[in-house]
Amino acid sequence: MILAASVDIPILSDIVVILGLSIFVILLFRKLKVPPIIGFLITGIIAGPYGFQLIDATEGVKVFAEIGVILLLFIIGIEFSIKSLISIKRAVFIGGTVQVIGTILLVMLIALNTGFDLSAAIFLGFLFSLSSTAIVLKIIQDKGETTTPHGKTILAILIFQDIIVVPMMLFTPLLAGESQNIWMEILMMVLKAALLIAFVLVSARYIVPWLFYQIAKTRSKELFILVIVLICFSIAWLSSALGLSLALGAFLAGLIVSESEYSHQAASNILPFHELFTSFFFVSIGMLLDIFFVADHFLIIIGLMVATVIGKSLIATLAGAFLGYPGRTSYRIGFSIFQVGEFAFILSTVGITYAVISDLTYQYFLSVSLFTMGITPFMMSISPKLADKLAASRLASAIGNKTQRMFFSFPEAPEEGAEIPEEELDKHIVIIGFGLNGQNVAKAAKSAGIPYVICEMNPDTIKKYKALGEPIHYGDAIQPEVLKGLGVYKAKVVVIAISDPLATKRIVTQIRTISNTIHIIVRTRFIAETEENLRLGADEVIPEEFETSVEIFTRVLNQYFIPQKKIKEFVRNVRADNYEMLRGVLKRSPMQKLTEEFPNLTTACYEIEKDHNEITDKPIAETNIRHKFGVTVIGLKREGDLTTQIGPETTPKKGDTIFVFGKPEDLEQFYDKISI
Length: 676
Hints:
Elements: H1 10-31, H2 36-47, H3 58-79, H4 82-87, H5 89-112, H6 118-129, H7 133-142, H8 149-175, H9 182-218, H10 221-241, H11 246-258, H12 263-287, H13 291-296, H14 298-322, H15 327-334, H16 342-353, H17 359-392, H18 394-407, E1 429-432, H19 436-448, E2 452-456, H20 459-467, E3 472-474, H21 480-485, E4 493-496, H22 501-514, E5 519-524, H23 530-536, E6 540-543, H24 544-559, H25 564-580, H26 590-597, E7 602-607, H27 620-623, H28 625-629, E8 631-638, E9 641-643, E10 657-662, H29 664-674
Parallel strand pairs: 1-2, 1-4, 2-3, 4-5, 5-6
Antiparallel strand pairs: 7-10, 8-9, 8-10
Helix pairs in contact: 1-2, 2-12, 3-7, 3-11, 3-12, 5-6, 5-8, 5-14, 6-8, 6-16, 7-8, 8-9, 8-15, 8-16, 9-10, 9-11, 10-11, 14-15, 14-17, 15-17, 24-25
């Protein structure tokens, strides 16, 4: 049946208003370089009941907002995995507990001294302990910081908050004196949560992979999307039906999908819906602000907002210190989760229902919450610089170090900045960051007999690998004292393999203030980060984005049976074309200067693995390697002794390491002659 033209659909006109007004506001804010989130909040204020009252079906908008939160947490869950979640369990429970309990106690103390009774003081502590999962995770996700130390810790604390909000809701009637079975209700909630987690584990291991396989065989994109949406909303609904939060259920649904090989396709299919509905969430938050109440109580609200930002930042920073992170990382955690979040709004309605807080208190809370949400994008954008300044402050650094020693230590590990014995450090590799890339560098160094030392900030990683005998040490490599303690001034190579692009640049700068000769190799995520690192002093920058694409097309060409020689030549040319654009922006090492003077030439070192009558056991003057192979011998290493004084009488032998200079194709031909 076709709908008659006269049928009115209120939510449809509201969608048009929201989207149209959002486009106008965000375009304006984009020119002013204001984050889009602020644009959506302003849109809600303008169109909401306290603005120009352009929206009628506010309940419909709230439903869309809930869907936005569900999809956001679902995407975050897909990007994570059950294994990675288990890896941050310490941050979830220790960091989350410190942040939530610390905030509750601080707010309760302040409230009791300003005239609130005990029940209201505790409940206000509940409200202010919760931060905005939707805003903070979106910003971290957009900046690509979900895998950084501060990003993982922030996610862990927010997960803990999403879990703890359920007991808070159950505890609220007890504060009002209207519940007698609170402990039984909490016990039931724990049992339900355990049941849901068991279902998630079984689904991730058996049900979902089988289901996706069956769907993929149909080659139906529509069916695939339907299944993804079904998994997302069904687990969220199940979580809500069990008395847990929708957001927690959506996150668990994402974890289920993340364990399958179809997770990337699932994320790409759901992303457009996620972006659309998340915008409705931020608009709905803006609609809550009563601008007339704010105007009448502006100075009080600003004062409360400042107190909230300072108080929550301090507690969250303390949580980072409890987890063993250095000052800079802890400060970034604090400057990210200082706001009051969306789940506090849901909890506040329960408090109003049971009359734990008054309507006036609710309005103050609502205004402060929205103001702290509004400044979150700005605070998070400047948090790296603020954290660096605080970390550089002697007073803040002393307090931070004392806090860490008080709450966190691990045996046999030097304190941050403590030096390693001089005799252990000579022409070694300094590995900064011990993720997969750092571990592979360490394996290669160990295999080659090259000494190395590791700098890492994750306490769990340090404990694990220190027990395995790795020379791993705790410290923030941004600090000059830490770099000196690692013997950077005597090292030959520094490999920076961390996930924090801003920290990477700071480390490069610090190393260059210590040494101009050390060879710095940087791993980055994106090609766009390459030029700045080179400009600051890195010798080589390897962007994962580019190298992944190289690996992909190499495998593609293999499938078409392209000869290996042609593939290698193509890879060499692609690398030369891309990296050549970024050369010349800084001082280069002597060997690199040589290759830059002769752009078609390069250097290489090979082990002579077999005797060859045209190369070994005869003086270079007799074998005439340069004429026959087009390469020039520039060095020879035998039994650990390196010589660069190459003359006509120099005689290469089997087992020597030979250093040569020439065209890539000539070097390859030469290597074929001396390798097995």
